[in-house]
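Design request, tokens follow.
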């Protein structure tokens, strides 16, 4: 069934708003449009052809439809958020008098702590790549940069050689909404980067026109974020590691280790590129070892016990 002209016009208006005013990435725009079109298809089954005819009950019915399909609460919440944003925009443009999704309850999310690695597990993983091969050096660099900076995988694969300043030990990354920020990458990552530029990337780029991207595949082409996921999975599978590791795990680990080491929450927020500090606060969980260290140091009874003092 073809989408009604009114729905098409409203989606087109919103898409232009996302691209021009919100400076949203192509991936973000695509996700919004996919969520909205799914709702539109559901509405047209009920002979609704414009958002002005959508009611609160339609919104509730759509969420029930998604739950029946087996979608997770997180996916349902994202789709609801997309529809709320669209209707807020249409109200601003005078196309709607009220937002039919404003009073639709967001599904309660399951609170899951981000998974992270302990320092010894980080080192165990970093020791896996074969540093005698160009691809091994590249893989080690990927892991080092993700952990040292906390950057997203999408930010890593977009890095160019010019974005990295080895003398200062920083990289310029382009985050969500095309926002720029500098992140430190640390001495370990800098050392591996020097090896990669001399012994890894040069060999992978031999005889090819240089496009400037820092991380490349075996053909010398820019690496994709999906390829980074495959690289991580390869090491987990090949070495039968009992670790739950994804590229994003290194970002979680960076934030956890920074906060456990005493870094200010606002500083970590800036380094991660989070707009809202509430997003960063999910990382304020601490390891059991850190809890024990703080307790032993701060609690009078703990220090008395550790010093071996007794009362008789």
């Amino acid at each position: 069934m073809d989408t009604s002209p009114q729905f098409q016009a409203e989606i087109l208006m919103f898409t232009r708003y996302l691209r021009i005013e919100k400076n949203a990435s192509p991936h973000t725009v695509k996700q919004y449009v996919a969520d909205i079109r799914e709702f539109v298809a559901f509405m047209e089954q009920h002979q609704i052809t414009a958002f002005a005819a959508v009611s609160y009950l339609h919104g509730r019915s759509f969420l029930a439809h998604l739950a029946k399909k087996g979608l997770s609460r997180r996916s349902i919440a994202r789709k609801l958020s997309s529809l709320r944003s669209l209707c807020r925009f249409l109200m601003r443009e005078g196309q709607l008098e009220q937002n039919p999704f404003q009073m639709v309850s967001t599904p309660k999310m399951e609170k899951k702590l981000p998974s992270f690695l302990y320092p010894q597990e980080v080192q165990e993983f970093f020791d896996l790549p074969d540093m005698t091969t160009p691809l091994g050096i590249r893989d080690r660099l990927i892991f080092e940069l993700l952990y040292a900076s906390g950057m997203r995988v999408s930010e890593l694969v977009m890095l160019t050689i010019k974005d990295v300043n080895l003398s200062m030990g920083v990289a310029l990354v382009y985050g969500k909404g095309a926002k720029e920020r500098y992140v430190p990458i640390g001495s370990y990552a800098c050392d591996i980067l020097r090896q990669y530029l001399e012994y890894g990337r040069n060999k992978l780029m031999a005889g090819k026109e240089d496009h400037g991207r820092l991380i490349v595949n075996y053909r010398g082409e820019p690496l994709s974020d999906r390829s980074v996921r495959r690289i991580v999975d390869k090491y987990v599978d090949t070495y039968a590691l009992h670790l739950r590791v994804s590229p994003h795990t290194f970002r979680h680990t960076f934030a956890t280790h920074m906060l456990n080491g005493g870094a200010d929450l606002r500083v970590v927020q800036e380094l991660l590129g989070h707009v809202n500090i509430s997003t960063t606060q999910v990382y304020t969980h601490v390891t059991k070892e850190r809890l024990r260290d703080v307790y032993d140091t701060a609690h009078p009874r703990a220090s008395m016990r550790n010093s071996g003092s007794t009362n008789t």
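Comment from the thread starter after seeing the answer: thanks! The first strand starts at residue 164 and ends at 165.
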